[in-house]
Amino acid sequence: MNTTSITQQITAFRALSTEAAITPEVLGVILQALADLLSATAANTDLQSLTAWKTNVLKLSTLLQSISVGTTDSDKVCLSVIQGNSSSGIAQRLADNIVLKAATTAQAGVMSARQVQSLTACTEDMAQAKLAVSNCNANISALKSWQSKLGEAKQVIQHLKLGDVNKASVAFSATLLSTTSGETRSIANAFALPAATSSSARVMTAAQVQQLNKYYDHVCNVDKAVAEVNNTIPTSLAYTASTRLLAAKNAEGKILFNVYLPYATNSTPGLTTTKAVSDVQNALNVRVKELGNYGSEAAALNALREPAISGNAQIVVAHLTYQTNMSMTLIQNIENDYCRQIIFNHAKVFQRGIYFTSSARDTINYAEETSCLFPDRMEWDKVNRKYVFKQFDKKFNAEYTDAIPLATAETDGLMSKADKKTLNATSTDMVNLYNMILTLSERVSDVEKQLKNMKAN
Questions:
Q1: How far is CA 309 from CA 93, 226, 292, in A?
Q2: What angle do CA 297, 298, 299 make, to 5 degrees?
Q3: Is the Cβ–Cβ distance between 169 and 192 less than 8 Å?
Q4: Using CA atoms, how far apart are residues 165 and 172, in angstroms rounded to an integer?
Q5: I want to staple 98 with a disulfide (CB 3.0 to 4.6 A). Which of 79, 82, 202, 400 is the partner?
């Protein structure tokens, strides 16, 4: 019997791994191939064997076709199976038919999620244990080296304990261990720590503790006194607008005293209102004008002379600049059809009078030239025969400076050129007359001497 073909089909059937691939048709094909092979080439003995095998297979009501993983959770795994009816060939899927529980110490099973976590933690602990063992080995090596050094020291201090303590020092008793024999020996008050000084740190003596306590008491008393004083010292001011009370508070926020702030009146100072501030600001905006920048000093002076400025009785102060970095300030006073302006221009202080054609002050009748307000010198005006004050080549009210009149026989005054010439001639004649009188006086003296000589002879 040639079973090569049927063997290949059975091998291929066994290789099937998916549930969908294992169908009654596939199984039927294999069984049909077996029947064809048996009917075609089988001997009676082989057919009897196959018939017996089929009979035995039909005795099994179901045949297992496949097993797959079903539902899983933290402590179990379920398996789903597909089984076929051996007589009808119908397949049936049984979900989660087989339950594999988690393994315990008493029975085998699947590994649960908790056991996986424990295994992971155990793996980490093992790594740390290996590191600890490595460190222990290193420490053992160090201890062996330290042990050899202790052997060279012959004896070491096993332990220390407090010994005698007095007001000035603290002693320690020591127990020594022999590294060779292992015997111990106690030494009472083996060493003492002396009292601390201002230059070295040691133990604090009883006297120092008493002194420190005394200082601490002083500090506490000072702190208490400061706290009591601080309670009476205002540290902040709080103003209540509704009551106009200014309250002084200490550091704890307690009000120590308060002051009532009244509104200002014409006779007493006090608080002002927003309306009063607004009125002052508006008044300043009216009384003070900023006129901008002008190209030259002459243009700036002309701008201040315009009726819009010099004729506006509301303007008291005006300011402008010229040539960018030069400034000029005006203060003026207006009365009816006349305006007097005082102009501050860098080092100079000028004044100017402006006359209008009417009290409406919209047309200028005449404007005086700018003249100095504070002269620093006097200059003689020989044409008008008067001294004129000047500053920076500006005259000071030249039109209103009275001339000094010429002197007359009745009044004092200036001397004219003719009178000066006459006076000079008279002075010369007087000198000549004086000289003549002296000469005559000398001649008279000579005559008198001659007469006396004649009488004597």
A1: 113, 65, 13
A2: 90
A3: yes
A4: 9
A5: 79
Cα dist from 188 to 159, 173, 267, 439, whole Å: 12, 5, 93, 144
Name residue 162's beta-bridge partners. 172
Tokens (6 digits) for 208 = 């120092």
Which residue is associated with the tokens 């000084």?
Answer: 197
Q: List pLDDT tens digits, range 206-225.
A: 887 888 888 888 888 877 77
DSSP 111-125: PPHHHHHHHHHHHHH
Residues 6+ apart with CB under 8 A from 17: 66
Model pTM greater than 0.85?
A: no
* CA 405 – CA 385 distance, rounded (Å): 8
Q: How does residue 236 score in pLDDT terms, banded at 50, 70 and 90? A: confident
Cα–chain-centroid distance for residue 277? 35
Joined tokens for residue 267: 């006779």
Contacts of 427 (CB under 8 A, 6+ apart): none
Q: Please give the pLDDT value at position 47.
A: 63
CB-based contacts of 360, cutoff 8 Å, min separation 6: 311
- pLDDT tens, residue by residue, 163-207: 888 887 888 888 887 777 778 888 888 778 888 887 888 788 888
pLDDT over 60 (residue 44): no
Instruction: Copy the structure tokens of residue 152.
Output: 């060279």
